[in-house]
Design goal:
The complex is a heterodimer. Chain A has two domains: 2-118 and 177-246, Rossmann fold (3-Layer(aba) Sandwich), CATH 3.40.50.300; 256-321, Alpha-Beta Plaits (2-Layer Sandwich), CATH 3.30.70. Helices cover 36% and strands 27% of the residues of chain A. Chain A has twelve helices and 16 strands. Chain A has helices at 2-7, 73-80, 103-109, 125-135, 141-151, 167-179, 197-212, 224-230, 247-254, 270-275, 298-311, 326-342; strands at residues 11-13, 16-18, 35-44, 47-57, 62-66, 88-93, 96-97, 110-113, 185-189, 216-220, 233-238, 240-245, 258-263, 280-287, 290-295, 316-321. In chain A, the strands form four sheets. In chain A, strands 8-9-10-5-11-12 form a six-stranded mixed β-sheet, sandwiched between helices. The longest helix of chain A is centred in the C-terminal third of the chain and has 17 residues, at 326-342. Chain B is mostly helical. Chain B has one domain. In chain B, helix 1 crosses helix 6 (99-132), helix 2 (23-46) packs parallel to helix 6 (99-132) and helix 6 (99-132) runs antiparallel to helix 11. Chain B is elongated, with a radius of gyration of 19 Å. Classes of the chains: A alpha/beta, B mainly alpha.
Chain lengths: 343, 240
């Protein structure tokens, strides 16, 4: 399902892209999106937490929600999780309209893992999970707890008091707690915050496994490489939604595709070499013997550029397509916001 | 609105486990009534046989009803604001639990140890009086109607005290402030039981029935009021 979104075609729903298979139930019926948000706004008095946020997420999708501190990510999660009432706008969560009357019904179908694990430190891991299994009224709680503990590799620490666990292990208990209710939509607020690389990798693997089992995941994170690796689509929020799309789409939207060329020695007249090539839209120097070429089709441009360079007598060391990361996209957007706010 | 007994029981059990493992909380619960008993016991031991005539017209032991009014306020005031400060409230509120269920579970968990402490302290007090006071004084003090009043009014008074403390806890931003305010809020109840003990308000069966009905009503009202003031948004986001 996940790879379908990456490689398959996308369908338009309203003004947002959602993969068609995620809007189709096993019986072929078109199903409502797991999350549909329209013009959602939250204000605390005069302060705007987030404003006019709209997006849709299909079932089984991993959706990254990125933004700087204070951008409104956690408040968005809390609003969609019925902890906070929106000031305006509308949403459906797991197919249920977000209204105060539907709070209990929505919370039955979702789970939220807050940034801070919020465990009862005097209680054991099992006692913590047993309490929440009862709060979710899960059938056969013992079996469910065992499965959740196995999923996060904590079965051998079940009897330990949560206060005796490391931060990473507490985070895993919180994740196990979020899995108890078999949620349709799982909100993970900074799930790898403060974890070492190995513990973070374990969480990533769990997220991938959950996606494969069809759970919709709404992931807020500061780790951009995490979002790039795990998320089918990402949204960048800075009070308002700045961009939304697949990571590669965002890169293409913000950055021109370029070829970076390194030669043994500087070319005597690079303008003459590059200007005559149809595949090259423009160029600028990237160093003493380095040239950055703006191209629309790197695969078509590279052979033509190589031929032109050889014909000009240049010794080519390398030709490579420049790769922009999600971090470049994020920084471009957030930096431009900061510059705009300074003006 | 239907109340899920399983969710109420989950909170009740969790709270009791936490009380059991929180030594400062349990010691705090036991110390207050112990201090409360010392002065009356000293007074009782100092009484001569001649005092038994006066004592038989008073209901001095009803003074002990102040214990269920005072003890639970300490733990109940902690219940919401304490969880909020620990960061454990948010995960609970993300589950399907209703605020009425959450507060009922917390109230019942505060009620059980409070009533137990009140009964045990009362029992110890009676044992001390029976064993160490003069027989005439002991028989004048220990009378079946007072014992019945203690038995029935202990949970009712504790319940009312708990709802007031939870109400304060839902609106408070600091555990200590909540506990101090809750202790202050239990003073009118303590004043009332003292006035009855000193015969300023003459106790009678009718007074007892009216008071019991009023307390039952107040307990129900307290649950409703505490639930109505329980504002998820303020407790989670710290606003409003």
């Amino acid at each position: 399902m996940a790879t379908g979104l990456r490689s398959g075609s996308l369908t338009m729903r309203g003004d947002r892209f959602v993969s068609p298979e995620r809007l189709t139930a096993p019986d072929g019926q078109v199903r409502a999106p797991a999350l549909a948000v329209r013009g959602l706004t939250k204000r605390f008095g005069d302060r705007v937490a987030f404003e006019d946020v709209s997006f849709e997420i299909g079932y089984g999708e991993v959706f990254g929600f990125l933004g700087p501190n204070g951008a409104g990510k956690t408040t968005t999660v809390r609003t969609l999780g019925t902890l906070i009432a929106p000031s305006s706008g509308s949403a459906t969560v797991a197919g249920i309209p977000l209204t105060p009357e539907n709070g209990v019904e929505i919370r039955r179908k979702i789970a939220i893992m807050p940034e801070s694990p919020g465990l009862y430190l005097r209680l054991s891991v099992t006692e913590n999970l047993a309490c929440f299994a009862d709060l979710y009224e899960t059938p056969d709680p013992k079996d469910r707890i065992d499965r959740a503990l196995r999923a996060v590799n904590l079965a051998d620490r079940a009897r330990d008091a949560c206060g005796a666990l490391s931060k990473g292990l507490r985070q895993r208990v919180a994740l196990a707690r979020a899995l108890l209710s078999d949620p349709e939509v799982l909100f993970l607020d900074e799930p790898t915050s403060g974890l070492d690389p190995v513990a973070a990798r374990d969480v990533h693997e769990l997220i991938i496994a959950l996606r494969e089992s069809g759970v919709t995941i709404f992931l807020t994170t500061h780790r951009l490489e995490e979002a790039e690796r795990l998320c089918d689509r990402v949204a960048i929020l800075n009070t308002t939604l700045r961009r939304i799309g697949r990571p590669d789409e965002l890169r293409d939207q913000l950055f021109a595709r370029t070829l970076t060329i390194r030669t043994l020695a500087p070319i005597s007249s690079p303008d003459r070499v590059f200007a005559g090539l149809d595949a090259v839209d423009g160029w600028h120097p990237g160093g003493p013997a380095t040239y950055i070429l703006a191209v629309s089709e790197p695969a078509a441009a590279a052979p033509a550029v190589t031929r032109a360079l050889v014909a000009a007598g240049a010794d080519v060391l390398s030709i490579a397509e420049s790769h922009h990361t999600l971090e470049d996209v994020y920084l471009e957007l957030i930096d431009s916001d900061e510059e705009a706010s300074r003006r | 609105m239907s109340i899920s007994t399983r969710r109420v029981r989950a909170i009740f059990r969790k709270e009791l486990r936490e009380y059991r493992r929180n030594r400062s909380l349990t010691v705090g619960m036991a110390i207050i009534p112990a201090i409360f008993c010392v002065q009356p016991l000293v007074n009782v031991f100092a009484l001569g046989s001649s005092a038994s005539g006066t004592l038989s017209h008073e209901h001095v032991l009803l003074y002990m009803l102040a214990i269920p009014a005072l003890v639970p306020s300490f733990v109940a005031a902690y219940s919401v604001v304490g969880e909020r400060q620990q960061g454990t409230l948010e995960p609970v509120l993300t589950t399907p639990i209703r605020r009425e269920e959450l507060l009922l579970g917390k109230a019942l968990a505060a009620l059980l140890p409070s009533v137990a402490v009140a009964y045990v302290v009362y029992g110890l007090f009676l044992a001390c009086v029976e064993l160490l006071a003069l027989p005439a004084v002991a028989s004048a003090l220990i009378r079946p109607p007072d014992l019945l009043a203690q038995l029935f009014f202990t949970p009712l008074l504790a319940g009312w005290s708990i709802w007031v403390a939870i109400l304060i806890s839902t609106r408070s931003n600091d555990v200590r402030v909540a506990q101090q305010l809750a202790s202050l809020a239990s003073l009118p109840t303590i004043a009332l039981t003292t006035l009855i003990a000193l015969n300023a308000i003459p106790p009678s069966l009718m007074t007892a029935l009216v008071a019991a009905a009023a307390l039952l009503l107040l307990n129900r009202l307290g649950w409703r009021l505490a639930s109505a003031t329980f504002d998820r948004e303020r407790l989670i986001a710290g606003t409003r």
